[in-house]
């Protein structure tokens, strides 16, 4: 770090412990860092909100302090780019793990040496070898649980966030509408984060991924005995007590189970499968669908009484093509997330690639964008444009062609090796990508061959029915309308053959 930059470094320490402050004062003096202290997390939050933002925050979480995690949650909301180092006790692993989940970058366990503390500070102050885009540290990115994030860089998404904040305080059912991959799950997590239930569980259940019997047990639980289970099994509604549950693809829930859900919404209690005794529950229900509501109502796939109970408050998530200003920010943020996950250096985008992405329609929305970034990271050539991401085997022989929906990959198989134009680097990631694409291609072929009869396809693939359902959901596969047998099976088509979100 240049000498002329050292004097500008500001450290904010949230602690009253002399054992913490003394070594930090010594470290600050030796490095000419400007050190400030805050007696509480609320004091630190007030300083951050007032615009006096430090370069790094050191948060001491003493035993018995219940406010630290709440402070961290709010700090992450206002300054998602602020590096935070935790100082904790050895036996405080639970809160330490929760703090890391909420966005803290690093931690030290007492007792620690002055040298360890200085190294941790330097690690988060000095830039890494990879080029860091200024867009990554944008205030428009809000971290959510489960690795999700919300981007509010456009007026339409800023309005959505304001609506989510109001709904977060209302504690009522909400119906979330939007295209596949547009971010309905993210909107649900945002509502949960901004609600009074944010400290409790958030659970997502896909109503299209499980057959009726399994879905009933998954949601409502089972009394055991008659259902094959030796003892009672609580469902997601009970497990998610005091928290929030998202019912994705609500229009794919069997009508009989929709009636039980109406009872839960109306009476705040449920009856387990095979049971008779009502069980009181306290859970907030969010529902999501990408279907045309008028159509599923007219087709009796969605009960009217359930719809009216869910749709008193409705949130519409716009598709990515209606918020194009966010695309560069999303590309950079997702690139850094994916690169960190795979242990690779982020691959920079050229202006040509960014321009091509900006003009692309993104029919698969955010899921298509994430898929594109993964493939670009592993196999992309920075001199190619979006439409040219087509990796062909040089000689056109002894190769395997894999359609991915975003780009076409040709994998050359020579004596057990896998070659591609990206070179020998990241071979493990490449092989994993090819494996997944090959698996998806095989599943698609089996489904097409059986007319999207999923049980027949499972037998053809020699896997269990439940495994196939999981894989269909994992790859976001949808049946074309040409297959009437897919109606009521949790599959949607667009008339153009199967596709992924």
Task: Report on the architecture of this protein.
This protein is α/β, with parallel strands linked by helices and 501 residues long. It has 3 domains: 3-126, Rossmann fold (3-Layer(aba) Sandwich); 155-319, P-loop containing nucleotide triphosphate hydrolases (Rossmann fold); 322-486, Orthogonal Bundle (Helicase, Ruva Protein, domain 3). Helices cover 41% and strands 15% of the residues. The strands form 5 sheets. It has a 5-stranded parallel sheet with strand order 2-1-3-4-5, with helices on both faces. The longest helix is centred in the last third of the chain and has 23 residues, at 427-449. The protein is globular. The two termini are 44 Å apart.
